[in-house]
Amino acid sequence: MPYRTLAGALMLAVLASACGGPAETSSSPSGAPTVQLDSCGQQLSFEQPPERVVTLDQSSTEILLALGLQDRMAGTSNLKTEIAPEYQAAYAKVPVVAPKIPTAEQLRAATPDFVIGSFTDYYTKDRVGTRAELSELGLPSYVSAVDCPQDNKTGMTPFDLLFADYESFGRVFGVEDRASKLVKDQRAVVEQASATKPKVTDTPTVVWIYSVFNGLPYVAGATSLPAEMSRLVGAKNAFDDIDEDWPEASWEQIAQRDPDFIVLGDLPKRGAKGDSAADKLQLMKEHPTVSQLSAVRENKVLQMPGIELDPSVRTVHSLGLLVDGMRDLGYVR
């Protein structure tokens, strides 16, 4: 079965049926179970499951929807692409707090009891407020484990950290069985990709381009999920020497690394120039140096939903697209 089919089927099966370390459970003075966890250096404690959650990005939104938690959500925000078809009915039940990253005022107006975002840079004074400020208001906030590699002392992979998010949410919301099933199904996709690495004569190199801002591309660095996806299927991320998730690069640096193929993230809903895959492809074809790369001239370019290159419940789908795309490009014997 092609990987894109396998990943898609597993996502549908999950719907039909979690930097945080593993959550811990103790008892509150009232005798009710208290769930405690560390999220990117901040200690969180829940005496009861949150009932008014606001998510700061689409990735966090879809993880909660995959866990069947739409009735616990007071708001969503920051849509980057179309909601996956299997989540659209549930998504329609959730109020939209803001089309982009919400302001502090928009967040507070939703009266949340928990805030979840994939990245630490959402929590700034000019966005929703710092995590310390929110904590002073009695509002706990969560950051994906994938964005806190400095807290990872155990050598966990980015997929392990993503699955830790699911497990943390399962404990916090009391849906451990749903979270365990989601982890099991998605780990099966990851393990199958790893077990059936494409057999290539030479390890192909790949550049992943997430977005283009002020004319400069942002590429996958060593700590990103795409770098791990590359490793899993026997390719090499061309910017693995940069210890960041999505560092800013230059078109000349991409040309110097001369990748065998290129992956473009498609973020059409964000609306800025350079967000859509079509914009990126046009920029590459117009660039005097990049346009001469064999990957561009020979159209060895894959396009994937940008949302799936972030820590997302949909990331395993793009892992499948990567394997199938490499097969189509001839990197599998």
From TrEMBL:
InterPro entries: ABC_Transporter_SBP (IPR050902), ABC_transptr_periplasmic_BD (IPR002491)
Any Pfam family matching the protein: Peripla_BP_2
Signal peptide positions (record): 1-18
Keyword field contains Transmembrane helix: no
Annotated ranges, domain Fe/B12 periplasmic-binding: 52-333
Record keywords, A-Z: Signal
Domain of life: Bacteria
Family note: Belongs to the bacterial solute-binding protein 8 family.
Record-given protein name: ABC transporter substrate-binding protein
